[in-house]
Amino acid sequence: MRVGLLLRPAHVEHEATAQAQRHPDRRQFRAGRLRPATGPDPNERGRLRAPLDASQPTPEVLVALAGSGKTTTLQYGALLLARAWRNQDGQLAAAKLECFTDKIPLPIYARLTELMAYLRKQYAQNRAPLVGAPPRLLLEALAALLDDPVPGLSVAVLEAWLQRGDCMLLLDGLDETGDAHERNGAMDLINHLVQAYPKNRFIVASRPFAGLAERLAGFAERHLRPLNAADMQALLNRLFLALRLDAPPAPASPDAPQPLVAEAAELWRNLDRSPRLFDMATNPLLLTSMAVLVEGREPLPTERAKIYQKLVELTIEAWRKTQITRNLPPSKWQPFEESNDAVRRRLQFLAAKMLEEERRELPLYRARELLRPIYQQNNPTWHEERCAEHVRTLLSEIALHSGLLQAHNSDDRFSFSHFTLQEYLAARHYTEQGSDKPDAVATMLGRWRERRWRETILLALGHEATSGDQETAQRMVHDLLATNEAEALLLAADGLDEANVYTIPELKAQRHAVSRRLQALAALTSDWQQAAHPDPQIRQRAATLLDRLRADKAHPDRDDDPCARPGLDLTRSDYWAARIEPGCFSMGDNNGKYDDEKPQFDYQIKQPYALARFPVTNQQYLIFMDSLAGRGPDAARAAAEELLKLMAQHEQTIDGFRPRGWPGEHYRSGEGNHPVVAVTWYAASAFAWWANHSLLSAAERAAGHLIRLPTEAEWERAAAYPLQLHANQPRAGRRSYPWGDDLSEQVSGPISATLQANIDLSKIKSPSVVGIFPHGAAACGAEELGGNVWEWCSTPTGKYPLPDDLVAESLYTKHKSSNSSYVLRGGSWGYESANVRCACRYGYHPTAGYVSSGFRLARLFSLP
Fold first, then answer.
1. Any idea of the CA torsion for 732, 735, 738, 741, to the nearest 10 degrees?
2. Which among 419, 23, 71 has a CA at the least distance from the CA of 227?
3. Which ranges of 379-418 does DSSP label H, i.e. alpha helix?
4. How far, CA to CA in Å, does 414 sit from each of 132, 407, 548, 822?
């Protein structure tokens, strides 16, 4: 068994290759840059992009959470770009990295922790040079650190390359450089470097932290999407093939996917059966850790803290076994003098001290200072030299044979192989202090405002809830809630989710207390005007965590479930907004921003109807997909069976209706009440047909009741006008936006005076949980008609005025689809305010499905 290898830097090329080839839109350099994650439709109004200036590329910051693959992305990019640069192989750069440029840049990868450590050492006596320092200072550090792999590399040579604009600098680990002061110093140095050498390309990788966007104001922000099903299978296959050193099995045909080896197939079956495990496996570090456990024949936990616990135990055991299996003469071999638990406690102590001292790397001399008192207390006969040698041997052996540690500069400095492992071991240190444990945990929890401590607190709470003392977990949640601060509540909720709290009866009271507060914070209670947080990003985080805790529901599963709200259950009457009666209204806007909004004209609604309160959500859409697969309630399955026959006639497939944003057959945890996105017009129309036949009886349908996508006219009438129209005044009471004539840009103060929709100004940067913008509701009670997602309508795109005989279309009704463009309304999360006006309209091909587009249903009532 070669467990430690998966965590060691020698295998980063293998892991990087697996991750980078998972999907073409995840992590690529376009024109020497990381391509952003799939965003809004590229040519839609309100998102016009400035042309790329090749002479001054935009610097970028790659922001992602722990274990998401930031370092692997940069190292893989540097590796392939170096190969392409060495051979001036433009085809390699284009094919593997989508780097289209006349001259391939020289990649220079560096860890900012090492650069800043060098500068701190050089200027230990005088920190002044680091304040407002010239860019040459950073080049000095780069040259010094590159001197070992590239002897003779001088600052002058580096400076000459940068002056010509021939380089791409990949600067990793900004968040790990130290405290806020140290990070600010690092960011200032980076800004100076960019300003001095603007012709080069710069990519900085970091976890998110306060002040990042403001300090690197000129940088474009990029993100890594989570792994999807195909990504996971590819990565697992490569990991296990690397362990076996086997040739990959041949696919059945040139176009067929690579067959899974036995271990990968076993782990994939476990992931596919467990939504929670699947969700965890979208994180590359956690997926790799799971593979390590499978390789070690360990049972697979469903909590992150337990996975890391098993991982640490397994890697220390692997290190221990190397002492036995090493090819040494028996007379020279002796077992290491400490037990596995003792070694783990030493590592925990070092990890905690590194966190307290804000170190990512620990010099050997500092490790000796920290551990010497422990060894001298346990072994009174040990002199100082014996202690020093013991510490050096311990850390060097663990770095060499376990993969938990990495050694640098000939064992002069050590770091944990991943920052998350350091955070986990630090968490274990604070929770294993015997009689001093309450004080130690309180000290750790007292740092909750510092983002650097967030992961450690989460892992401590997760460990105590699942493997430690549940009373400690209860106290931690209580103390966080006692602060009455939003961030502390979110941290407590995240910790309970980490612990899979739904399965822990002892924490039911804490789960209920946290859920109620999250619901209020997110504006999902009737007293939202007083209780909700004004910042939409906070409301989004609260609502997402509420869903992860299985507490955002239309009605409780059990009497003790604390939260329920209207509008989420397709089968209930509260799913629909208020009924709108037939009548004449004025459509379009002669003063509108875009020509296709003109001219305004009168239009007659002929049948009473109601729109759904919210867009269709992932949770609702999953019921539809399950019914197509033969699962679910009888009525849903019966309607799906009929729909499948119609789909076959039009060559539509179930896979074609699966949202592109889902990582597999299920949406990501926490996104159940996000609007479903990345679905085509055909899929939206099919859902509406299915809802019509599963929710309405045959008698209701025969009487004229109908569920379908709204027409463009029905959508605008509901969005722009009061319930009662004024006789002979078809434009009376019209609103510019669904909520009124003004759009607020505020995100503080009373929620009723803040931004009313999820648009670009919200900074949410994704679809949001439905219902967190109650002050953006239309007069009929339908919410989020402006913002969040563009909504498909059932009518084709056409010039104004619309004809009176315009009908709703669908593949599956008598009004067959025959058009190449259908209307989208409402704007979305990535668009400016002009797009959420009631008059704004857009058209797109029915086969298109973007992360900014979804749909909502309309219900038509029979005429008297």
1. -150
2. 23
3. 384-401
4. 30, 5, 37, 59
Taking the chain, what is the end-to-end CA distance rounded to the nearest angstrom?
76
Burial code (b: 16+ CB inside 10 Å, e: under 16) for 773-791 equals bbbbbbbbbbbbbbbbbbb
- Please calculate the CA angle 327-332-336 and round it to the nearest 5 degrees: 90
CA angle 730, 735, 737 (to 5 degrees): 140
Which pairs from 42-48 meet CB under 8 Å and 24+ separation? 44/831, 44/835, 44/842, 44/852, 45/594, 45/831, 45/834, 45/835, 45/842, 46/827, 46/831, 46/832, 46/834, 46/835, 47/830, 47/831, 47/832
Pairwise CA distance, residues 843 & 594, whole Å? 13
DSSP conformation class of 210: T
Mapped onto helix, strand or coil, the DSSP state of residue 163 is helix
Q: Mean pLDDT throughout 404-422?
A: 86
Tokens of 689: 């047909």
Residues contacting residue 847 through CB under 8 Å, at least 6 positions apart: 680, 681, 682
CA 561, CA 723: separation in Å to the nearest integer? 35
- The pTM score is 0.84
Residue 122, Cβ neighbours under 10 Å: how many?
15
Distance CA 465, CA 548 (A): 17
Cα 423 to Cα 517: distance, rounded to the nearest angstrom: 28
Residue 706: which H helix or E strand, with range?
Answer: strand 706-708
Confidence of residue 42 (pLDDT cuts 50, 70, 90): very low
Residue that has been written with the tokens 């550090």 in this structure: 141
- Beta-ladder partners of 586: 602
Summarize the confidence of residues 211-230 as an average pLDDT.
88
Mean of pLDDT over the chain: 85
Q: Which residue has the tokens 């376990």?
A: 402
Distance CA 485, CA 489 (A): 6
* DSSP assigned state of 681: H
Residues with Cβ within 8 Å of 804's Cβ and at least 6 positions away in sequence, in order, are 603, 604
**How far is CA 825 from each of CA 713, 737, 829, 840, 857, rounded to the nearest angstrom?**
11, 12, 13, 7, 13
Q: Which residue has the higher pLDDT, 280 or 539?
A: 539
Transcribe 507-541 into DSSP letters.
Answer: GHHHHHHHHHHHHHHTT-STTHHHHS-S-HHHHHH
Q: Are 771 and 675 in contact (CB under 8 A)?
A: no
From the CB of residue 607, how many other CB atoms can be counted at a distance below 10 Å? 14
CB proximity list for 309: less than 8 A, separation 6 or greater: 301, 424, 463, 467
Amino acid 442 reads A
Question: How far apart (Å, rounded) are the C-alpha atoms in residues 237 and 691?
Answer: 40
pLDDT in tens, 149-191: 777 778 888 888 899 988 999 999 998 887 788 888 889 889 9
